[in-house]
Amino acid sequence: MRLGGIGARRRTGRIGLIVGVVIAVLMIGTVVIGSITWDLSPSALSLTKKLERPSWQHPLGTDSFGRDQFARLLDGGRRSLSIAAVILAGVVTISLALGVLAGLAGGVVDSAISRVVDVLLSIPSTLLALALVGVLGPGLVSLMIAMITSLWAGYTRIARSLTIAARNRGDVLAARQAGRGWVATTRGHIVPGVVSQLLVLATLDIGGVLAAIASLSFLGLGVQSPDAEWGSMLSESRLFLTNAPWLLAAPTAAIVLTVLAANLIGESMHDRLVMERTR
Amino acid sequence: MRLWRPGLSRIVQLIVTLWGASVVIWSMILLAPGDPARRLLIARGIPDPLAEDVAAARRELRLDQPVVVRYVRWLGDVVRGDFGASWRTNRSVLSEFGDRFGATAVLGVATMVFVVVFTVPMTLIAARWRERWPDKVMQVGSSIGTSLPSFLVSLVLLHVVVLEWGWGQVLSDGSVGSVWLPASALSIGVAATWTRLLRGGMVGVLDTSLADICRSRGAGPWRIMTRVALPNALVRFLPFMALTVGALVGGAAVVESVVDWPGMGAYLVDAINARDLPVIQAYVLLATVAYVVTANGADVLARRLDPRLGIER
Q1: pLDDT tens for residues A44-64?
Q2: ipTM value for the complex
Q3: What CATH topology corresponds to B93-310?
């Protein structure tokens, strides 16, 4: 009974993974191929072509400035994905360094890092990001700083506990007794395990980060016009959405599908990891 | 055996954490680019201030004093309940919040009602027919639900349901009649997460011998679900409920601002756009206190209800 349950759960997990990967491949493929082949500019204004319906020339129509919506969608997708990648790479790097340091050094260093982590985790993270963007001023750099600041603490806590768990593992002790220094042992035996777990966490968070980038840009706090981003495209065309529903449909579908694909992939990777750990 | 009690050490730790958060939140003012005195005057609508105005603003903000002194005096005021005055209106931040608290409270209560009304029956059905189609439908639904950013849901509801189909009213007046839109936007993500966690918890209880014993004594599936699985899962689920408070204080700001809900969240977004720092600081600080207190309260309550939780740690 229980075995059957796990088997069935795995199958649904695999279906989720397949759906997620298919959506992700289609989206990334569209963005990559579209960026190469679609030669309309995402920022070329045309006052004679305002708010055009979808057509062969403009498959997703044009916005209130006469810009090609498909080109902007491609440009926005590239931008969102690279911002999310920079944010998560920053988070993983910072938390790896601080978490491993805290876990190995112990003592004052550990308690100092852990206290800062505790304090940051006590501030609701979406709100911290929102407030930091507000204080630093709207813009791409503020957005990235704010998101990294609101995310690194949770990752650091996990990196620290993984490091402490690994410190007395057999292979680490053996490497130490064989005469390898702490630096080499850390690099060869502790960091790889921590990194792989942090990367799984980061995959799990891609969807949330993409949603946050879109939300903040929609509020006018992230990506600034004329640069395209799915959230800021929606806020730019807000006044025209009733007459031009295609301006609402395309960015909405893009955001939901991307976040869904990222969540499905992240969840199934996480499930697999949990299952390996419990086995 | 003595029950676990919230001891002095826990309260001390809580105060230390909140103090640390106050340092972080206050320090944001140091990160703001540009001269705070000029920012204050710009927020008040004076873009090109005279030199003496700037000097007066500097004194008002105590910029002539050392950083530590400024922080300590700010903290002293905050502890006494004085969060300063909004840079835009010069009114006290607390009375600005007071005007808008009602609308946010209506939204918060409506959201929680939506979440509970949806989550509990859905989870019971999913766990009752686990691995069968109701459970699978619910899992797919919760995957989709967690992938819908709340700003997007509120935008689509506003433009499709209200403007296209003509249901409901465009104007959000903060009343119970128009709360369904922002409340559904906020509750979808929360409900999706809750359903998933609660289902996992209930399935975990159903896998224990406790459920087998109940079954062998003749309890029907629904009785086991409602009397055994749900209460046991809820206890462990309490701390996650507190996490929701943290998610909602940020999400409410975004959703309120999208639909122009006259609450504290939309006011925060306005303050962010105008760089009204005292308002931003007060909102984040109050939200942090609310979050930390609920998280600790939920933890204490969970351990009271299930003393085993205290021993495991």
Answers
A1: 766 777 667 777 777 777 777
A2: 0.86
A3: MetI-like fold (1.10.3720)
pTM above 0.90, yes or no: no
Could you tell me which residues come within 8 angstroms of residue A48 by beta carbon, excluding any fewer than 6 positions away? A66
Instruction: Report d(CA B83, CA B77) in Å as an integer.
Output: 7
Name the residue ranges covered by the structural domains of chain B. 22-79, 93-310
Q: Is residue A167 classed exposed, middle or buried when 0-12, 13-18 and 19+ CB atoms within 10 A define those classes?
A: middle
Q: Which residues on chain B are in Cβ contact (under 8 Å) with A12?
A: 136, 139
CA distance A246 to A240: 10
Structure confidence by residue, pLDDT tens digits, A19-53: 889 999 998 888 888 878 777 777 776 677 766 77
Burial class (CB in 10 A: 0-12, 13-18, 19+), A122: buried
- Mean pLDDT value of segment A138-154: 92
Q: Indicate which of B19, B138, B146, B152 best probes the interface with A, i.e. most A CBs within 10 Å of its own CB.
A: B152
CB B223 within 8 A of CB B144: no
Integer Cα distance of A195 and A227 in angstroms: 33
Beta-bridge mates of residue A62:
A68
Distance CA(A267)–CA(A201), nearest Å, equals 9
Instruction: Give φ, ψ of A68 to 5 degrees.
Output: -70, 120
Nearest to A123 among B32, B160, B288 (CB): B288
Residue B225: which residues within 8 A CB-CB, separation 6 or more?
Answer: B124, B127, B128, B202
Structural tokens at position A7? 């088997």
